[in-house]
Design brief:
The protein is globular and about 80 Å long. The longest helix is centred in the last third of the chain and has 26 residues. The chain has about 675 residues and is α+β, with helices and mostly antiparallel strands. Helix 1 runs parallel beside helix 5, helix 3 packs across helix 4 and helix 15 packs antiparallel against helix 16. The model has no long low-confidence stretch (mean pLDDT about 95). The strands form five sheets. Strands 1, 2, 3, 6, 7, 8, 9 and 17 form an eight-stranded mixed beta sheet that branches. The protein has a five-stranded antiparallel beta sheet with strand order 12-11-15-14-13.
């Protein structure tokens, strides 16, 4: 490490071949594989050429998010059911807007990475013969899913971190990303480093600035969870999308966020056995009084209502194609409508669903066959939801108890929450971005289409980390940058320091106020319910807030406020990118798809009793325009564009079909032609 002085500030300078930003399961896995690939190529000090940089090693979705039995989606491992990478890829691409080569790579890499996790110590269950047991998840035609319990991704991150530490790879914790350093232009543009603020060195006199110069950069910082007010992402997960946009990376499928029912006191998905236990769902007023079993107004029988609650277990994501004809996603619409009235919605595991006076009382043996057969096979025919949940999945109860909620004594408050972004930054089949030497993995990578099987994101992060590491080691080598691009780096650092110096303005909003405005706007207008006119209006509002932030700064109380101020700056830009993409897609007539519903007064009726609060007429929605499944919306930052971003459709890449005989394939491998 070196030190230098720029604009009167001490800056710590580091040099590595590859810097990995993010310490979740994807980032740690990439570090492990990169060390191993470099070592295999004769690099004896590989640990000194790689660095992991993170804003908080114990933070982020990998460490702090999950569900009843958090799913890992892989190729099937059942001894009696055949599966293939091509079938796996077809499942990932079934709903469109997904590149076939990425889907095939995820299928081919899935078992390699799954068994890598097993060897690392993740406790995936297997039977006495060694078969890893599977189950069916959402959008899954097979039983490809497996789980290590509610904390699957946490176990993954921790096991991989232990490998990173054994290899001696340095981890720089508590480093907030503040800027991506670039050099060159056009096809020669490169990201040559990242500027961070060491939160342990931050004070009134010094910003704790660190510069990590690198030949290769891997972005693995997760999704922009704090973009939404109603969110199941861990608190404080902001992501670094705004920094990546400003550096010039192109994004794809930003419109395809995933939403679903989740608890809000402790942020956790209520999928799987939480719903399959069939709890009572009711609402109260803002003070927790005036209970109402609101679902009963919309279902004709107890059997239909209770079966749909059950189906939300493995049909958990909100899906506009499962609304009409009293399907399971009608429940999401009804929960959202209830919260829009200012009421609070709860799941009660102590009582079975309660019906209207003219409904039959809840009886397990009157459930529809899909639900009754499942519960019978699981031996979950106990008399109350909490007993059924305890029988099927005791850790699902434990995780709430660990976080101060006892399902044996209190109901669970829920809402429709943002959970995952299927889009992200564009990558090729080696997970390299549109700027060479910069790779994007995990949720930051836009590898998913309109829908994805539950748990496929964990496999995508592992496969992406493997492929990025393999390409870096075999194509870009292990060199460490010396004094490259000094002038460009010093210029950008000087500009950044000046911006930080001028950030405080006693008359401006606080960072928290700006972040709250961004989150509110995205949940209301960029969430699971969308309208074109509304999206256009809030895009204009987002642009105005962005200008205000950059022109006027923030009201800062102390040095610690600098971190949320930086986050608000780049999250403001991120929100514009997402809203611009939403407006563009709606303008193309995309309709309702993935996990969002597009309201249209000339469309399909949701339910005769789901009505517009203003007109009183039944709400209607626009069905999906399936013609757009073969293109992907790409978004690129352009400071000269009226909305700061430009959009264009690009064709979906097909999966490669070439299959070479062994000998020529072997020759290509030995000659390194597989990387060209």
């Amino acid at each position: 490490m070196e030190t230098c002085t720029i604009a009167g500030r001490t800056v710590f300078l580091h040099r590595y071949n590859t810097v990995i930003v993010g310490a979740g399961a994807a980032g740690m896995n990439c570090a492990v594989h990169l060390y191993e690939f470099m070592s295999d190529r004769g690099v004896t000090d590989a640990q000194d050429r790689i660095a992991v940089v993170t804003g908080g090693i114990a933070l982020g979705a990998s460490r702090m998010s999950g569900s009843d039995k958090q799913t890992y989606y892989k190729m099937g491992t059942s001894p009696e059911t055949a599966d293939s990478a091509e079938d796996f890829a077809r499942s990932l691409t079934a709903a469109g807007c997904c590149h076939g080569d990425l889907a095939l790579a995820e299928g081919i890499g899935s078992l390699r990475e799954f068994y890598h996790l097993v060897q690392a110590g993740v406790p995936f269950p297997h039977d006495a013969m060694g078969s890893f047991v599977g189950y069916k998840t959402d959008h899954d035609p097979y039983e490809r899913a497996t789980s290590a319990g509610p904390k699957t991704s946490k176990f993954m991150s921790e096991c991989l971190q232990r490998q990173v530490e054994r290899y001696g790879i340095p981890i720089f914790d508590c480093h907030e990303a503040a800027h991506l350093l670039t050099a060159g232009g056009g096809d020669d543009k490169r990201i040559v480093g990242i500027v961070t603020i060491d939160k342990k060195r931050l004070n009134e006199q010094n910003y704790g600035l660190n510069v990590f110069c690198c030949e290769n950069l891997v972005l693995a910082a997760g999704g922009p969870g704090e973009l939404y007010e109603t969110s199941v992402y861990p608190r404080g997960q902001v992501g670094i999308h705004g920094l990546a946009f400003a550096a010039g990376l192109a994004a794809e499928n930003l419109t395809e966020s995933q939403f679903g029912l989740a608890s809000i006191k402790f942020r956790w998905n209520v999928s799987g056995t939480y719903m399959q236990a069939i709890p009572r769902i009711f609402s109260t007023d803002a003070d927790g009084k005036n209970e109402r079993d609101f679902l009963t107004d919309f279902f004709p029988t107890m059997s239909r209502m209770a079966t749909n609650i059950f189906l939300k277990g493995y049909q958990w994501p909100f899906d506009p194609q499962r609304i009409t004809d009293l399907q399971s996603s009608l429940i999401d619409v009804l929960v959202f409508n209830e919260t829009q009235k200012g009421r609070r919605v709860f799941m009660d595991f102590l009582r079975n669903p309660v019906g209207r006076a003219d409904m039959r009382a809840f009886e397990l043996n009157e459930l529809e066959p899909e639900a009754l057969t499942y519960l019978t096979r699981a031996g979950a025919l106990q008399s109350t939801p909490i007993e059924r949940l305890a029988h099927m999945n005791p850790p699902a109860i434990d995780i709430y108890r660990e976080n101060g909620i006892d399902l044996y004594s209190e109901p669970l408050e829920i809402a429709v929450c943002a959970q995952h972004n299927n889009g992200g930054f564009a990558v090729n089949r080696w997970w390299e971005s549109t700027i060479p030497h910069t790779f994007v993995i995990g949720e930051m990578a836009g590898t998913h289409g309109v829908k994805r099987p539950g748990g496929s994101a964990l496999n995508a992060g592992q496969t992406g980390g493997l492929r990025a590491a393999e390409y870096i080691a075999n194509v870009y080598g292990a060199d460490v940058p010396q004094d490259n691009h000094r002038a460009a780096i010093e210029t950008q650092l000087t500009e950044l320091i000046a911006a930080l110096d001028n950030l405080h303005n006693a008359q401006a909003p606080s960072p928290d106020e700006a972040l709250a405005a961004i989150c509110r706007r995205m949940t209301t207008s960029g969430g699971h319910i969308r309208q074109l006119a509304d999206a256009r209006a809030v895009l204009a509002d987002a642009l105005a807030l962005h200008r205000k932030i950059y022109n006027e700064g923030f009201r800062l109380q102390n040095a610690d406020d600098l971190i949320p101020a930086i986050q608000a700056r780049h999250l403001a830009l991120t929100s514009i990118a997402f809203l611009k993409a939403i407006v563009e897609l709606l303008d193309q007539g995309s309709g309702s798809r993935g996990s969002h519903l597009v309201l249209d007064e000339n469309g399909v009726e949701i339910h005769p009793d789901v009505k517009d609060p203003i007109t009183g007429r039944p709400l209607r929605f626009k069905p999906e325009n399936e013609a757009l499944r073969n293109v992907i919306l790409r978004v690129l930052y352009d400071p000269n564009a009226p909305d700061l971003f430009t959009c264009r459709n690009i064709p979906v890449r097909k999966a490669p079909t070439e299959r070479k005989a062994f000998e020529p394939a072997w020759q290509d491998y030995r000659a390194g032609r597989i990387y060209t």
